[in-house]
Design goal:
Elements: H1 7-14, H2 22-30, H3 34-43, H4 46-61, H5 67-74, H6 79-86, H7 93-113, H8 117-122, H9 125-132, H10 143-148, H11 153-177, H12 190-207, H13 211-230, H14 242-261, H15 265-268, H16 272-276
Helix pairs in contact: 1-3, 5-6, 7-11, 9-11, 9-12, 12-13, 12-14
Length: about 280
């Protein structure tokens, strides 16, 4: 090879200032000429070269935010909080599609039976299940990081609970719109949903993130069975009457108060004790 890149062109190439068509010629030549590549290495500022490699490594190693994380960031959510929310298992497409399928099936069943009881009984359980499935080493992809990170367990709990509740209540709300013939009684699931979720969270500090929601969900189903046996056909079950709604609001307030007072239990051992069955 008798032709080599001129010295001035080589320096311009190293500084990113060489313009086409000389740039194209230099690119093609450098791929096959070891001598010019060695001259190019001498023309490059080593400090600038190291800085460029560091920027490239950082760009290649940086995790790519998904659509949920990008949306949350655009809405003004802090980057670290958006990442915690995006990693919440039940905010993934598979869970949301499963919830929507279950709600659609329930709404269709209600339309056939002409009674909203099935929907009102099921809807409060979905946010409770969603919160329960948001934590633990088997489902949370950031579990190990959360255990060792300088992050309060209670704060992570609240961040993900709000996210799950928002998604769950939104899905339930869409299903409620499909039952316009029942009017306001179709919204009677809202306060029980908040009561079940708050109670499950309050008990999780002592019983763990699995046993607590299981007991709360079982208690809710037992209550419905008992009241159903004592309620005449076509009458409203007591949890969905005005008195039942007032009781659900009171339970929500009491559970939220107990949860706040027991918040230190979630930080006693960072999330690990919470998942393993309560703080030690």
């Amino acid at each position: 090879m008798t032709w080599h890149v001129a010295e001035d062109d080589l320096r311009a190439y190293a500084q990113g200032e060489l313009a086409p068509p000389l740039l194209w010629s230099a690119d093609a030549h450098l791929t096959g000429c070891a001598l010019c590549r060695a001259r190019l290495a001498e023309a490059v500022d080593p400090v600038a070269l190291d800085a460029a490699w560091e920027r490239l490594d950082a760009e290649l190693d940086a995790p790519r935010p998904g659509p949920v994380e990008r949306l949350l960031t655009r809405l003004g959510v802090a980057d670290h909080t958006a990442r915690l929310l995006a990693a919440t298992p039940v905010l993934r497409r598979s869970w949301l599609l499963s919830v929507l399928f279950l709600l659609v099936t329930t709404v269709l069943a209600v339309r056939v039976a002409d009674r909203p009881t099935l929907f009102l009984a099921l809807a409060p359980l979905l946010p409770l299940a969603g919160v329960a499935l948001s934590y633990g080493p088997s489902l949370d992809p950031t579990y190990e990081m959360a255990v060792v990170a300088p992050l309060h367990g209670f704060r992570l709990l609240m961040i993900r609970t709000v996210a799950v509740l928002t998604a769950g209540l939104f899905c339930n709300g869409l299903a409620t719109l499909a039952l316009p013939g029942y009017g306001l009684p179709a919204l009677a699931w809202l306060l029980p949903a908040l009561a079940l979720t708050a109670t499950g969270l309050a008990l999780s500090a002592r019983l763990g993130s699995v046993l607590a929601p299981v007991l709360v969900g079982g208690g809710w189903l037992t209550l419905l069975v008992l009241t159903g046996n004592q309620t005449p056909a076509h009458d409203t079950l007591s949890p969905f009457t005005a008195g039942g709604q007032a009781a659900a609001a009171a339970v929500t307030a009491l559970a939220a108060l107990l949860l706040y007072h027991g918040r230190d239990r979630f930080d006693a051992r960072p999330l690990g004790g919470f998942h393993d069955g309560g703080a030690a």
